[in-house]
Amino acid sequence: MASQHPAAPRQHAPHAHHHDGPRPDDTHLAELLDLDAEVLHEQLDGLTAWAAELTDGTPPRRILDLGSGTGTGTFALLKRFESAEAEAVDASPQLLQHLADRARALGLADRVHPVRADLDTTWPAAVGTVDLVWASASLHHLADPDRTLREAFAALRPGGLLLAIEMDSVPFPRFLPHELGLGRPGLEERCHAALTHRHGGDLPDLGSDWGPRLAGAGFTVEAERELAVDLRAPLPAAAGRYAQAALQRMRGGLDGSLSAEDLTTLDLLISDDGPESVRHRTDLVVRTRRLAWAARRPSS
Ligand SMILES: C[S@@+](CC[C@H](N)C(=O)[O-])C[C@H]1O[C@@H](n2cnc3c(N)ncnc32)[C@H](O)[C@@H]1O
Q1: Ligand 1 site residues, Cβ closer than 6 angstroms
Q2: Dist. CA 91 → ligand 1 center (Å)
Q3: How far is the C-alpha of 62 from the C-alpha of 83, rounded, in Å?
Q4: CA gap 219, 221 in Å, rounded
Q5: Nearest CA owner, ligand 1 atom 3
Q6: pLDDT in tens, 68-106
Q7: Burial of 191 (C-beta count, 10 Å sphere; 0-12/13-18/19+)
Q8: What are 160-211's pLDDT values in tens digits?
Q9: Which residue in 20, 96, 137, 174 has the most C-beta neighbors within 10 A?
């Protein structure tokens, strides 16, 4: 594979003007994705170990990370498969830049190839044939994920593997106890209910059963795994920041969907300072459920 300096993502999205220019939202998303990787690193390790089992005997040399974000999957896979290189495909120039900077900092620049592409408009043909496709928390963002799955199938060598990792109808973990001591019991449940309602409209594929859809794209679905995360005190040091970043992102979609009292309480919880801030609370948890599918392109 031709080596590509990660500071200059290749571009395959001529029509992706909606992704041009700096987006403050992506700066925040980058922080959230990195915190997610830090706090949930055991689950990530488990998934790459699973990938190693499933590719036993023929470790992948060419990996494609679809909707790579800041490179959580890319870097975890490159650590697991030391002879591999990865194509990291994402529509966001900011997230790809973040990934490229990190690749350099980790000394992995020559094994990481950031490719800017809007998968809703163009399959990045320069990616070529790969041995392993990783799609984590990205399929539900796509306008036509079934088409992208068919394209990923075509990009895989016969016998190659795709791992899809997705989540329930709410893409955020739970962090808060039911009783907050702030007079708004059940606040997070109401946030999630409001988001589920909203996502039913703007992210209709969130929470989908991807097994039949993978089969529809030609894959043989070999296994499905549920990853249940239930972290309690003592939590990793980054958990408070992770909770803050996730609740802040959630807050952005909740105006008009929650009562003024709930929104005021949520604002207290996501503030940087104050005893109510999730940065300082000692009663947080991190509970989430992710689902993973392993699907293979048949050898013949
Ligand atoms: C929730 S993030 C997951 C990132 C990463 N896979 C991870 O597990 O941390 C979803 C990613 O999909 C990317 N994405 C969404 N729509 C896309 C599209 N149409 N084409 C390419 N990437 C897209 C976003 O930019 C974002 O980086």
Answers
A1: 33, 67-69, 72-73, 90-92, 95, 118-120, 136-138, 141-142
A2: 7
A3: 9
A4: 6
A5: 137
A6: 999 999 999 999 999 999 999 999 999 999 999 999 999
A7: buried
A8: 999 999 998 888 999 999 999 888 899 999 999 998 888 777 899 999 999 9
A9: 96
Domain-wise residue ranges, the chain: 1-168+207-232+288-300, 172-203+234-284
Pocket test for ligand 1, best of 28, 38, 141 (most atoms within 8 A of CB): 141
Task: Give the CATH number of domain 1-168+207-232+288-300.
Answer: 3.40.50.150
